[in-house]
Amino acid sequence: NAGVMQNPRHLVRRRGQEARLRCSPMKGHSHVYWYRQLPEEGLKFMVYLQKENIIDESGMPKERFSAEFPKEGPSILRIQQVVRGDSAAYFCASSPPTNEQYFGPGTRLTVT
Amino acid sequence: GDSVTQMEGPVTLSEEACLTINCTYTATGYPSLFWYVQYPGEGLQLLLKATKADDKGSNKGFEATYRKETTSFHLEKGSVQVSDSAVYFCALSDRTNAGKSTFGDGTTLTVKP
Prior knowledge:
Number of helices of chain B: 0
Largest interface: A-B, 23 and 22 residues
Order of helices and strands of chain B: EEEEEEEEEEEE
Shape of chain A: globular
Oligomer: heterodimer
Structural class of chain A: mainly beta
Distance between the termini of chain B: 41 Å
Number of strands of chain A: 11
Distance between the termini of chain A: 37 Å
Order of helices and strands of chain A: EEEEEEEEEEE
């Protein structure tokens, strides 16, 4: 059973461009979570999704950030018009109906 | 809201020394508690967990006991190795809060030979 997959592992964008981060949950997992880790800091919750539904987006910045988890395909975290402060590692986790989460390797976004 | 406070680092130990990383939490519901480990350049790996009071999680020589009376989940290991050098995160997940996890800020452990 493959683990949580994220791609790309590293992403470089210039200021003002869009960043798209993908997350494929573990097989059989219907819950997806996105977290952001700024340098030298812990993980901060961003959004919790189930298939075709956003359950909790209380950690998402109000502008430029959006997330989806379609019926088919991976979950996408989209950042529009990136700024330098968006540079961070973005981790996806998935879980079954129990609350143990399994993390992907992360996408490291660098905004130049 | 939920919160996790863990011992500030960095922590530097010699090989075979004893390790304790303190973690305390606040939660409105009945959380499960976790320790995750992050090696350089990698994602988080679940190290151990406990789902109810007095449970002890253990893995790879690490242990932590869910103490409801002190709202704590301290991580311990009797004899650390150089390969244990990593960042350790304490976390809780609360079913009454949509199951999302709340993390501490992490403690960096360096073990010297």
